[in-house]
Every structure is written in C-alpha cells, then in structure tokens.
Amino acid sequence: MASDRDVLPAWIKPSHYTVSLHDLEFGAKFTYHGTVTINTNIKKDDGFNEIVLNSHQLNIDSAELKTGDAVRSAKVVSYDEKRQRVTLDYGEQIEYSGEATLTLKFQGTINNVMAGFYRSKYKPKGNVPASVAKDDEFHYMFSTQFESCDARRAFPCFDEPNLKATFDVEIEIPKDQVALSNMPEKEIKESKKDGFHTVVFERSPIMSTYLLAWAIGDFEYVEAFTKRKYNGKSIPVRVYTTRGLKEQGNFALENCHQIVDYFSEVFQIDYPLPKVDLLAVHEFSHGAMENWGLITYRTTAVLFDPKTSADSYRNRVAYVVAHELAHQWFGNLVTMDWWSELWLNEGFATWVGWFAIDHLYPEWNVWGQFVTESVQTAFQLDALRFSHPIEVPVYDGLEVDQIFDHISYLKGSSVIRMLSSHLGEKVFLQGVADYLKAHQYSNATTNDLWSALSKASGQDVNSFMDNWIRKIGFPVVTVAEEPGQIGLRQQRFLLAGDAKPEEDETVWWIPLGLHSGASASEASLHKTNALTQKEDTIRDVDDSFYQVNKNLTGFYRTNYPAERLKKLGEARQSLTVQDKIGLVGDAYANAVAGYGSTPGLLALIERFQDEKEYLVWSQILTNLGNVRNVFSGVEDISDALKKYALKLVTPAVEQVGWNFKAGEGFLVGQLRAQLIVSAGLLGHKGTVNEALRRFDLYISGKDKSAINPSLRKGVFSIAIKERGESAFRAIQNEYLTTTSIDGKEICLQALGRVQIPELAQEFLSFIFSDKVAMQDKHSGTIALSSNAKVRIEVWKFVRNNWDSHVHPTLSGNMVVLERFLRFGLNKFADEKVADEIAAFFKDKDTRGYNKGLDVIDDTIRSHAKYRTRDENVVREWLQANGYAQ
C-alpha cells in the first residue's frame, strides 16, 4: 500500500453493488432505510477476521458475509468517525479467497448540508402532489452529491476512485413523484406500502462511487434528441426541474444535444450511455456535478429565461453544460487513479468546455474570456507562497475537497491550452482521443496522458510539461533590451515579490510566442520558440515592435522595460483582445510584486479610455479595482484614484448608453452592464441619476420593464450606495419575492454595497438566517469584502459569531465554510488584520479549511507590503497628473 495515502485494504475489491432504498420519511425526520449488496473479490492468503469499508453518519444494523456456502454475520460493528470508516468484525479467522457477497442493512438521514444524500428547499410553482416533503414555508426535493468522498454518507461502500464497480439501484417512492438515477428506468415494482412503488433502474457501466447519483421529487422535463445516431438511434436528452420551471431548461437543452454529438466526434468515442439527464437542484454546493447520465446543477448554471435572466447567465449555462458533458468522457469513462490527479478531470474539462462553446458561439470571443477569467484567476492563486502544484499529494479523501480550486481547474486548463497551442489543436485532440480509447472504463495517470500526446506529436511531452504539473508556481519572464536583441530571464513569480533562492530553483519550459517586426501589424513569429534555461539572449529581434507571449497562450507573466510597456500601449489598436488583457494583467501583477511599478500601470491603463471591448474593460476594471482596494485606507490616494477611475470610464459609459438594441452582440450588452455598475459606483452623475430614476419606477411597481434584466445588479447596487436604508429594505424585499432564477444572487451582490456598519451587520445576520440558502451565503459576503467602507464588518462578524452562527451553520460542508472565509477575508491590505485572523484560528481545528486560511494570510500580507512600498510613488504620480493636490 502506498504510504503517501491512507486507503482501504487492497485485498478486497468490489465489482458490483445493488443499492436498495426504502421507507423514506417525507415528514420531519427525513430518515431512510437501505440495503446494499456488494459483490467483492477477496485475495488474502493468510485469512482475515474483519472487513473495513467507508461509512459516514450511517447506522449499520447488520452486515452479512457470504463466502461460498458459508454465511456469517458481523459480531461487532465499530465506527471510525475521523477516517469515515466502519469495521465489520466477524469474531473468527476466515480462510477464504475468491468471490464473496457482503450485504449490509443500514439507516441514514437525508441531510441539509449539500453532501451525500440530501434535501433542497424551494418554493413551488403550480399544484404540488400531497406526498412531496414540506414544512411551514418550503417544499423539498432530494438528490445526491457524492464527489469527492460523500457516497459513504448515503450507503456503506468502498469509496475510492479506482475501486470501480457496476451499480443496480432501486428506490421506493410515492407514486406521484419521480425518481431518477444514472441509467434509465428498467421496471416499476409494487410496494407493500399504500401509495408507493419501487423504481428499478438499468445496470450502470463500471464506474467510481463518486459518480453514482439518484434524485426524487416533483419533477417535469423538456426533451430533445441527438442528431447523431448511437447504436442506430438518437439519444434522448432531458432537462429536469421541479414543477413550473421546465421551460427555463430549453437553452441548456439546445446546447446539450449539440455538445454530446460534438464531443462524440472530437473524442472519437460515442457517448456511452443510453440517455443524458440534466437536473436543476435548488441547493447545490458547487456549480454542477458530472454524475454519469444524471448531471446535477445549481439552478443558475442550467436554467435561463430570456425574458427575466441577466444575459451573463446565458454564457454561464452554456459553459457549465459543456464542462460537465466533457466529464462524461474525461473523468467518467476514464477516471484519475487517485485524487492527487484530480486536475486530469477538472483541468481538461475546463479547457474542452470552452473549446466546445467556441465551436457553438464563435462571436463570444471565448478565448478572450478564458484569458481574462480563467488564466488571470489562476495566476492570482498560484502567485502565493501557499499555492500547490497542479498534481498535489492527497493523503486521504478528506483532504481532496480543498484542491477543487483554481489550480486544479484554471491553472490545469491554462497549461492544457498552452500545450494544445504548442502541439497544434488537431495533434493534441488526437492524443487525447488515443488516451481515452486506451483507458476507457478504467483509471489513468498524468503520465498516461503525456505518453499518448508524445506518441501523437512525436515530441517528448513529459520532459517539457513535468515541471508545470509537479512544481509549485509559475515564472515571470523579465525582458532586457539591447539593439537587435533581447535578454530574457525567468524566475518564480510571487505576489509578495520576495522569492528566496530555494523557492526559485525550477527551470520551466516556456513557449515564447515571440513576435517582432517593423510594426504591430507587420510582426511575425520569431524562430526561437522556447526559453529552456534561467537566462538566454534572443537575437534578430526587430525592436521597432516586439511582443512576448502572443495571445497569452503561455502560463507566465512578462515584465517589459517601462518604455516598452508604453510603446505596447501606444500600439494597442493592433493587438488582439487576449494581448491587451495580458498586457494589463501583467502590468498590474508586476506592480504588486515590485517587478514593475504602479505608475507604469496607471499610465498604461489611461490610454484605454477609447477601448471598445468588454473583455479588455473587464480586465482593466478588475485590476484597477484591486489597486483602489489596496489603497482604500490611504485617504488622499483613495480619493485621487477614484477621480482617475471616473475619468477613465466616463467616455465609455456615455457612449455605450442604456438601451439594448435589436441584433446587438452579446459582448456589447456585457460591456454596458459592466460600465454602468462601475461608473455609477464611482459617482458618475448621469449614470447615478438614470439608475435612480429607473429604480424608482421598478420598485414602485409603476414600470417593471424600467430595468433591463442585465442591468439589475448595476441599478440595485447604485441605489443601495446612494439611498442607504430605504433601498436596502426595498432590495431585501425584492430578494424575498423575486421569481427570477438569478434574482436572489443579484440581490445579494447588490446588498453588499451598503455604506454603513450597522446595515452591513444587519445584512450579515440576514445571510445567516434561513432566508438565504446555504449555497448562496458567500454571494453577499463577496460584495461586502470588496466594499472598502464596510469590509472590516465581515471580519468582526466572523470573530463575534464564530461559535454561534458561522461554524455551526457552515461546517457541515467544509467546501462551503472554506469558500465563505476565503472570499470574505482576503481583500484586506493590513498586517494587523492578518495577525488578528491568524491568532483567532491558531487554536482551532482547521482541517478542511486550513489551505483557505493560508491563502487569506498570504494575500493580505502581500497586499500590505505592496501598499507600504508603492504609497509614495503612487501619490507622486497622481499629483503630477492632476488627480491629487
């Protein structure tokens, strides 16, 4: 057994499960009974007296083992809560090898923490069957979330990804409700209980426990069929919702059947199951979960109403549907061998999800979006000392939840994009198809993928990718100019800018993407394609114009000399959207770390007043917002930066206007929404006045069409900032009464714009009431933490209410707790606050969110260091350029 991980004994392996659930209690207790029969294979020469498997928060009533003709019952059943295991002691030495059957009868609870077999509350539309579980205020649906290690919360099992098996599932439910699972319904059996029957599902293919799923509720669906034929017929594709919402599944449905066909062609393997179901779940800890054949989603990631949804959610739904469908091959058909290689699932599904959306919606500039969202967000986390390698050791299943993060998903996908760009898309996808064919229905490692890609490309992929996957961090390439040539030096990039020699030993293979020429429009690719040592000199570079890392395909920062940065800013009209995003993002990151300067960044951004592209504005406003954030405690600089920002956005917001025109591109609408919220919060008079006029018409009920759905966040945020308590009450009421699928998220984001401590505390108390679903508790906190006026109130609330509210409410699901803390506390730039947070958590058991605390600490201290270092030069530049006295 590998000593670097805590796994179940290797001498017993499952091959098939029959899971039977019955006596579900639809009233106050939410209990259920179950029987699981596990066909196993035992190989133990010296005999055994006990069997260990995974179980968490279940009561096992009996455990019968059948070996050949002998049947034994466990004498003692003991639980190890910390390791989430159960030991079945048979009280005698059993000498047996071969096939054996383990039958366990157990009881569990359908919990409310979004893990295992759980319940989600919702307010129904239409007439609800009498059998649907309900309390005074809400109705409930039941569903599962087993990744990474929560199948063991629903039934006793061998809950590790490489212990694959087939599954038969049967569930006893009221006749007027619907049951779903990975496979289609096989038959209905009558139940002894009046008004109930048992739904039996077809046998699943061989798969990991974390991909098993079932759901029960008052469901209805919309349906389409794939255009391609599979085994001679089209596959049914359905989006299931609770009653009254199914029409909002049509957009996801339309994407889904096209993407199933597209991936079947791209991966050269037909989609392997007889159906694809997408289920909208009212409370959901992540965005979605790729259960084979029954993919579950939070409602805002799968439902879209063209009349009432903000247009940004159209993009979200399309992408999340594609990401989860990619997993049906990459993750489900071929599964990582152990959680340390989670990135194989998530990094690839992220990249290929965007790849599919680019195929369906070329006008969305998907790779520009990828660069500003995925790449820049990955940089942010990976620039911390407390980052981790893409492939990270995981000791046991309980550690893995913390690596479902921006490194596994976003750095993983960024590195895959870099590799695909280097090998060429066609060659890369051929290698992926070969990998999937070689390992289908089994498990694989990172090296298996590299081998397939090496064979397809004729290049030694492992040699240049190994450090990207197994070493922490990423490089910054610093450029030095001499006539006709440039010097390049790579070093590890840290946000704090203080990499010690022992932290800077990695030599990355860096694809240079170097273009040079007489001008930006005439530049062509340089023959030198990679930097493979710490320092190198590249000759024959036309210094009239040159650019490193074209389209930001390489996962690294570039640090240009100040004069070159200025020239690139002047040539911006000839740069691609990705180039501009990279230029701004790198200038910002280098300023924070001290490789570049904040005045250099401000001078560069100032040139972008005439920018037309939403994705570039998104990058500019994010980075400028961060700078303003860091200096928010320095009054004169804060005021001057506000003036600077207002001057920057004024021409753009005045040009883009308020009205959505017929036939207007998706990205133009996104730009309007972004500029209105930014200009309004900066106090741009015309924007504020128009926002308040529309707000009054909307809230009074005189004209509900006064606010375009895509502008609700902007208008609500501006109203709360300008009007205070009266707007706060109005939007709180909007939150409680909205029927729009994205309405609650939008209201929470706006409520976080309050300006006084008392309202911030009231809002936090509201977040922790049962009025706000567990899945949404971080949404309002993100807005509060980005709000310099009341940011400190989040920390005060956490500190003062840790034992009474925060920990008891969120700790049932560590993913939710860690996310709440990391988003709520990482925006400070004050060492004193970092010290307070560290002292507060020093004596607490932080397992499950300790990595999040490391991220908070490192981020705050890096920003504090940046503020101290750059305060004077920023002040001087702002004074010299007329923004400050």
Automatic annotation (TrEMBL):
It is an enzyme of class 3 (hydrolase). Its cofactor is Zn(2+). Its EC number is 3.4.11.-. The keyword Kinase does not apply. GO terms for biological process: peptide catabolic process; proteolysis. Transmembrane segments: none annotated. The record marks Y409 as: Transition state stabilizer. Keywords: Aminopeptidase, Hydrolase, Metal-binding, Metalloprotease, Protease, Zinc. Zn(2+) binds at H323, H327, E346. Residues 251-468 form the Peptidase M1 membrane alanine aminopeptidase domain. GO terms for molecular function: metalloaminopeptidase activity; peptide binding; zinc ion binding. Binds 1 zinc ion per subunit. It comes from the Eukaryota. Residues 545-861 form the ERAP1-like C-terminal domain. GO terms for cellular component: cytoplasm; membrane. Residues 13-211 form the Aminopeptidase N-like N-terminal domain. InterPro entries: Aminopeptidase_N-like_N, Aminopeptidase_N-like_N_sf, ERAP1-like_C_dom, M1_APN-typ, Peptidase_M1, Peptidase_M1_aminopeptidases, Peptidase_M1_dom, Peptidase_M4/M1_CTD_sf. Pfam families: ERAP1_C (PF11838), Peptidase_M1 (PF01433), Peptidase_M1_N (PF17900). The active site is at E324 (proton acceptor). Belongs to the peptidase M1 family. This is Aminopeptidase. It comes from Lentithecium fluviatile CBS 122367.
